[in-house]
Backbone:
């Protein structure tokens, strides 16, 4: 008769509360049996922890992003494990790599296909500024065609930097007013890119 | 019989005589030049001849020599004899004012895209090409970027320090 396998001499009892992280309560009024806060704080909290990124990877930054998505760095810890490969379902456009001028209309098209609210993250030197490719054929930063929320410096950035960039996006998502996308300021920003 | 450089040279001289000139043969690869009007005749001869049999066009490219007046643009055909595994290089030169060259698309089908690329970067006008338009650069581009009078760098950047990028400034 086989013996039951014991892997540890002193088996550890895992507590489920150790492996779940709780989001902090947003500021609000608390009393006996009720808790009141702003609606946009709750929406921000929900959005922030379930961002669906759309990877637009064109070169080596995309490889670094694969490492970020892998088990070692694991973007899933921050609620972004679900990459969408259709812009219509995604919240965050991650542009990673050199964008040639011929690619620029495609990036813009992808951005236009995303539904509001949408955020854009430019990863690496090329997407942010053209990088070393100061050349007639390369777009000198994607902010020439679409508005960018967060830039990650590096060539390519470390996965830690990518995680940090995603966390900065989370801060923006968390703190964004629900009315921001309707504001005249935001519309003026989009108009400056000939969008809408 | 093995297809030697000497033999190819001999056959070319026999057929085109004075009009052909030869350069150095680096790594035993034959290089020769003719006037640009002759390009189709030479290519057709190299293609049709039973012995020479250069049926594969590896590449067409161009070179810009701004200092050589009247022959600023070189168009280079790289030909390959697949049976004997022999490669040769054939150059024609043209002035930059009238860069008109006969198209090789009727001899080599693959010349279509290669000539479009050469047009795209150097502005060589391939007369008779079925679809001579840009292939790699954006359609809106209004110049030929590999010509040496145009700067390599993107001119829309205003944030880069010119001195650091070797385009003017006070540092020599």
Residues:
């Amino acid at each position: 008769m086989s013996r039951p396998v014991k892997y540890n001499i002193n088996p550890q009892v895992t507590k489920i509360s150790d492996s779940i992280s709780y989001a902090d309560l947003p500021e609000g009024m608390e009393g006996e049996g009720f808790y009141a806060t702003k609606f946009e704080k709750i929406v921000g909290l929900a959005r922030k922890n379930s961002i669906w990124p759309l990877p637009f990877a064109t070169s080596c930054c995309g490889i670094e992003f694969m490492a970020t998505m892998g088990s070692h760095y694991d973007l899933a810890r921050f609620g972004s494990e679900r990459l969408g490969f259709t812009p219509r379902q995604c919240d965050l456009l991650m542009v990673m790599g050199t964008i040639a001028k011929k690619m620029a209309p495609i990036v813009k098209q992808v951005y236009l296909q995303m539904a509001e609210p949408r955020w854009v993250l430019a990863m690496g030197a090329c997407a942010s500024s053209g990088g070393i490719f100061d050349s007639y054929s390369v777009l000198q930063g994607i902010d020439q065609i679409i508005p960018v929320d967060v830039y990650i410096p590096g060539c390519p950035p470390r996965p830690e930097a990518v995680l940090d960039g995603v966390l900065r996006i989370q801060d923006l998502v968390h703190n964004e007013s629900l009315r921001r996308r309707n504001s005249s300021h935001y519309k003026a920003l989009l108009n400056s890119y000939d969008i809408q | 019989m093995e297809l030697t450089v000497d033999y190819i040279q001999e056959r070319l001289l026999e057929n085109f005589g004075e009009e052909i000139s030869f350069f150095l043969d680096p790594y035993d690869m034959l290089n020769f030049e003719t006037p640009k009007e002759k390009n189709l005749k030479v290519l057709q001869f190299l293609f049709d001849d039973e012995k020479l049999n250069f049926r594969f066009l590896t590449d067409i490219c161009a070179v810009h020599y701004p200092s050589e007046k009247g022959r600023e643009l070189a168009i280079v055909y790289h030909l390959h004899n697949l049976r004997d595994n022999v490669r040769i290089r054939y150059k024609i030169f043209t002035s930059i004012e009238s860069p008109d060259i006969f198209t090789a698309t009727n001899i080599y089908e693959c010349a279509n895209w290669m000539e479009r690329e050469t047009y795209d970067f150097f502005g060589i006008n391939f007369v008779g090409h079925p679809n001579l338009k840009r292939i790699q650069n954006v359609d809106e581009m209004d110049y030929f970027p590999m010509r040496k009078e145009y700067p390599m760098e993107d001119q829309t950047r205003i944030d880069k320090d010119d001195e650091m990028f070797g385009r003017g400034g006070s540092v020599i």
User: Anything to note?
Assistant: The two ends of chain A are 74 Å apart (CA to CA).
